[in-house]
Specification:
Number of domains: 3
Helix content: 55-70%
Strand content: under 5%
Distance between the termini: 13 Å
Largest sheet: 2 strands, antiparallel
Number of helices: 22
CATH class of the largest domain: Mainly Alpha
Order of helices and strands: HHHHHHHHHHHHHEHEHHHHHHHH
Length: 346
């Protein structure tokens, strides 16, 4: 019974849900009338996909439903949607689904999260090169706190501009972050100055952690990734191992099922694939060619031979771009990443 409970918890972990599953859980939670209002802008095909996911839902834990509802609220009430009546729209849907009292409780619960996400809006729009130049002279803890609030792709671009030793120190600090105190946030206020136009909350905020660092390192070159992980390992071997276990690297393509791998290959240009495979293991090459047509395999082999000698950094760039495509397809619910038998639920 305990093992089954653990499997169900893993299955309904908010981090593992696809976009389709989240939409289905949201529609189920708010009821038919409100669900119809939410899905009004979908195409017939999209509506059919959501309906199918709803039919396949089992007993969803309340914490999962709350997480999905919170994410929807954050998107709906976000800065970009306020001009389109996002707040009023969200309140209207929630009041019809849960009533006025429950709606106020939900909105109050996420108010701090919304304030925190808006706080770094100006920095999220900043050019990575300019931002890295601005941060270079700051204390590593200050840099870590700022980067922990930015998107992984933006942090990866900034990381490429920083000295490797500084980058490793910063990633180590982000990986160890959990709750951020008001005093620590005040460091950011002093670092970025009054022009940032930010309002700092007094409560504790949750940012960073090993997962955040893993997402960032998935977007940098293998050489930068290796150097940073070595620095983290020198200070905390267990933390370094934890980050590695959360990462998806190019060689992990071998874990994709055939259908997911074929879906990925439709997004990858043959020249980019040939370049990425120059430094791949024989096992991975065999796996990829095994899901391709004979004609496609011949074309790929010709492309690899035609490339000749290539720079390792070009190979790493190609591999990083493909891994980024994997993540995008996973988030869209179009492919499934499996790390082994423990992910299976029978």
């Amino acid at each position: 019974m305990i093992a089954l409970s653990k499997s169900l918890q893993d299955r309904w972990s908010p981090e593992r849900l696809t976009g389709r599953q989240k939409a289905a859980i949201l529609c189920t939670a708010v009821g038919a009338e409100c669900a119809a209002k939410i899905t009004a802008g979908l195409t017939p095909g999209e509506a059919e996909i959501v309906a199918l996911e709803m039919a396949q839902l089992d007993r969803v834990p309340q914490r999962t439903t709350d997480a999905v509802l919170t994410e929807w609220l954050e998107m709906t009430i976000g800065v970009d949607s306020i001009s389109m009546g996002g707040l009023e729209y969200a309140k209207d849907v929630l009041e019809k689904a849960f009533g006025g009292i429950k709606t106020q409780q939900v909105l109050k619960r996420i108010q701090g999260q919304l304030a925190d996400s808006d706080r770094f809006g100006r920095l999220r729009r900043a050019d990575p090169s300019l931002l890295s130049s601005t941060l270079r002279g700051e204390h590593p803890q200050t840099i870590a706190l700022i980067l922990a609030h930015l998107e992984a792709s933006q942090v990866a671009a900034i990381l490429r501009e920083l000295d490797p030793s500084l980058g490793g120190d910063v990633m180590y600090r982000i990986a160890r972050m959990e709750k951020v105190s008001p005093e620590m946030v005040s460091l950011v206020e002093r670092a970025i100055g009054s022009e940032a136009d930010l309002t700092f909350a007094a409560g504790m905020a949750t940012v960073g952690g090993p997962q955040a660092v893993a997402q960032i390192l998935n977007l940098v070159s293998t050489s930068i990734e290796k150097e940073i992980l070595e620095q983290v390992s020198d200070r905390d071997q267990q933390l370094s191992d934890q980050i590695k276990n959360l990462m998806f690297v190019f060689e992990d393509l071998i874990m994709l099922d055939d259908k997911s791998l074929q879906r990925l290959l439709r997004e990858v240009d043959v020249k980019q694939l040939a370049l990425a495979l120059k430094a791949a293991s024989p096992e991975l090459k065999q796996k990829i060619m095994g899901v391709m047509s004979q004609r496609a395999v011949e074309g790929l082999r010709e492309e690899i031979e035609f490339l000749g000698a290539v720079k390792m950094r070009d190979v790493e760039t190609a591999q990083t771009d493909i891994v980024s495509k994997v993540r995008s397809l996973e988030e869209a619910g179009e492919i499934f990443l499996s790390s082994g038998a423990e992910d299976l639920v029978y």
